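COMPLEX REQUEST
Ligand: zinc ion
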Amino acid sequence: MGKRKIKRAKSWLKLVPPEHPTLNYPAEILTGIDDVTKTLINDLFWLLSKHGGLGLSATQVGCSRSVFVMNCGERVAVINPVIVQLSNFGKTLLEGCLTFPDQYVEIERPNEVRIQYMNEKFRQVERSFYDLEARCVLHEIDHLNGKLITAYGDLVEGCHENR
Ligand SMILES: [Zn+2]
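STATUS: Structure written out below.
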């Protein structure tokens, strides 16, 4: 990625608290890609790496757009995701969320999910994700539906696990 001539201040970009409306209502489906969404995707990747997280949705920064980014080794930007298939087998793990720092909820998720979505160029993609990436995709899709990890159970303080 090239250097920007003007460093934009990203101080506006902040995680909003759990009670914020964008975290509690479904996000808006995008009908196309615009400069605001391109900037949003770049900024979400920036904030994700700043916090050392695995996934981050637009709704977590107070923006009601159906967009999330993830990085479980590969950077993936996802717009308007739709689940097309879920595996029958799952796993229960303690799962974290940047919206609830250092707190976790035990959640059972399928090991595999197949989704259709638009990539950052607004091209249609269909792809399967497995294990940690599948968990991350499902977690972020929950965010875009206004669902938080607290819907699955009580938060526990913790120092293990990740995200
Ligand atoms: Zn989250």
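REMARKS: Residues 92 and 108 are 4 Å apart (CA to CA). The longest strand covers residues 75-86.
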